[in-house]
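Standup notes
- DV: blocked on the single-chain target, sequence here:
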Amino acid sequence: MLDFTPVKNRSQSFIEFVNGMTKADLQRYTNEMVDTELDIIANAQDADVVFVPVDPQAKDPFGKPEENELAWTLGHVVAHATASSEESAALASSLARGIVPNERSRYEVDWRTLTTVAQLRQRLEESRRMRLALLESWPAEPHLDLTQTLSYGTFNATARFIAGLFHDDAHLEQLREIMRQATAARA
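- DV (later): unblocked, structure below
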């Protein structure tokens, strides 16, 4: 599994962090991430998907105002994390093809519709398929010299793709904690 410590502690920028990574690396890291997420929910039951955990740190300033302090369910985390990684993969594809994107490319499945473990697994597998397909849209010689500067750094195609996995990684402990609480509540 990719260790994001250098990016988290800001000893490396995303572009420095991804230096030397290949498309095959991005495919492998994508599969490792989705496999990790599937492993976390491997023993989940349908009731766990909609279980509302105790989360004193719940705060989403980018969400709907009425939901900005709502504790997230497994379905909410999976919907959010997969949408972010898919967006990063789509924007990375544009950069790789020589196009600087000028708007977001984000669609998030309504988390309220994710109510079963089967739906979570399907969403994660669909996201894997989409991300890997977007990597296949890269040309043989991607435009890795082309960058886009955002509020949180400068990105080339590889860095933009990895930023999605970085976001997934940031939610792994949250998934584990929800599973811990849901399992305890069932006991």
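- Follow-up: The chain has a mean pLDDT of 93.
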